[in-house]
Amino acid sequence: MGTVETEVHRHSLLMLGSSAGMTFIGVLATMFYAHWLGAEVLGAYFLFLSTYNLLALLSDLGFNAAALKRISEGVRPDAFFTLSLVIRFVLLFGVVSLLMVAFRYRFVDLNNAGLFWPLIVVFGIGTLSSCLSTAIGGANRLGLSASMSILDNVTRIAVQFALVLLGFRVFGLVGGVAAGLLVEIVIALRYIDFRIVRVRLEQLRSMVNYSVWAFLAASGVAVMDNANVILIGYFMESSDVGIFGICWTFSFFALFVSTALSNTLWVKVSRWGATGDRDAIALSLSRSCSYALLFAIPILAGGVILGRDLLYYLYSASFAAGFGVLVILLLARTMQSISQLFYTFLMALDAARDGFTVVLAGSATNLVLSLALIPVLGLPGAAAGSLAAVVVCLVLAAGRLRRLTPVRLDLRALMRFLGSAAVMSVVVLAGQAAVPIHSFVKPLLLVVVGAGVYFGILLAADPGLRGDARRTLHIRWWGEGDGKR
């Protein structure tokens, strides 16, 4: 297990750094856009992204996850790469684009904003980028994958920043998305190892059998992630979409560690499942859940205390109205940090049907509650729908996953996290009352102090955590799983 733990630590650190960096840069960029463009322009941009995500789902149909699964198993990966490229980029993208053009006048909001044709272009670039990135991730080249994601996001934000300053407004934001995806494509084409080869019928059948359930599961995830934005746009104003979008984006801080771990472990759990290494699967599940909560719990506590000030000072006064929404979403994200890992393990262990069952229940809960609550409660109703959906997914995913591997949460570690977060909260509340600064400096300063208190207590009280920190920091960053320290 030493070599396995070393590889997981190294790749997790790469993905964590990538995720943290992207989240931090994204928040800074969104702060600028919020002040410079306002909630209405951001609302149009978030609507564009939600529609793009739904189109990406239609050009996926589960074949992205199927390609990742089969390539990661290491048996004839060239054939599965070829199938993914032909099915997704040639067939599905072509069909979906033609249908979009045929019914283009139905997309009233996109046409009014002048975003319909840019959507088609970005859709094509994104489909090709997804195919190539999946192949690199499936080959366990996670360092390269993380680097590509970082360069994508840095390019996107740099181009967006420049174009927005030049006055292109929402078109500048969309242009940045396209530029980032193009950078990923250029890098992937330079380093990809797979070739276009002839495929066999059994290989196609293997992908289709997995992709059916993967598509249905991905459909549920897409509904949970995008339905609220679309429904808010239908029932409320564009500015409300912008406020919810800011809170939704900000709440991702509670999820970025879980996302990094999921991206790291998907391929590895798939290979362990194929080779029958059940001990590695059980250990990685328990440890990853602990690390997800290690970061999510203090972010939830800090958001409850400082959320209003952060929205007010970092974005603008109009976004402070979303404080209640932010608190609900942070609670949902904290629980989602675990349910996301459960879902990742289900999909990696070839239990795509169970994954679909989980997200179907969650997306149905979200859709029904959002339809019922948004007209009555507004934005808090949308957030409540998301929270209920996560609870349903967490309970069902835990039950399904127990059939495949032991699900053990470290309750002692959880109590240490809660105790440290309580002490941190007292310190932050005292600082909030004592510090007279009335600018963005105050909440940011309290965030730094709170993080120092929280992690200082844990490192002092938990020798295991100290050992993990030392092991991670002493990992040598060359070779794949060489076990050197």
Structural class: mainly alpha
Overall 3D form: globular
Distance between the termini: 14 Å
- The percentage helix is over 70%
Q: Which parts are unreliable, with pLDDT below 50 for 5 consecutive residues or more? A: 472-485
Average of the residue pLDDT scores: 83
Explain what you see.
The chain is mainly α. It has one domain. It starts with a helix and ends in a 12-residue tail after the last helix. The C terminus is likely disordered.
List keywords for this structure.
disordered C terminus; 485 residues; mainly alpha; 18 helices
Provide a concise account of the structure shown:
83% of the residues lie in helices and 0% in strands.
Topology:
Elements: H1 2-37, H2 39-58, H3 63-72, H4 77-102, H5 108-112, H6 116-138, H7 142-165, H8 169-191, H9 201-235, H10 238-251, H11 256-275, H12 278-314, H13 323-348, H14 352-377, H15 379-401, H16 411-434, H17 441-461, H18 463-473
Helix pairs in contact: 1-7, 1-11, 2-6, 2-8, 2-9, 2-10, 3-4, 3-6, 3-9, 4-6, 6-8, 7-8, 9-10, 9-14, 9-15, 10-13, 11-12, 11-13, 12-13, 12-16, 12-17, 13-14, 13-15, 14-15, 16-17
